[in-house]
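Worked example 2:
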Amino acid sequence: MVAVVAGCAARPGIGPDGRSIDAVALAEQVRVSLVDGGNRVDRVTCAAGLPATPGATVRCTVSLGQRSWGATVTSTGSVADELTFDVVVDDEPIT
């Protein structure tokens, strides 16, 4: 799977600090962004939440059937009341 999705957005405030998105909500937003970009995705899990701090990253796992790929989600900051981020899925599957 090769996927790069830029300019994704999610509402922050879900995390305890009010300026981040928790891991469960982030995984759903990544899944929606990938599907909206024309990719087939069964599920996404993320290791942690993502702060609105530009350059902050978190690793997620993108699954389709029996295959899984790593993905790096990078915060690009926030615009108004939305956290913005980019998603880059690894070229090679991890399983």
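The chain has one domain: 3-89. The CA atoms of residues 65 and 89 lie 16 Å apart.
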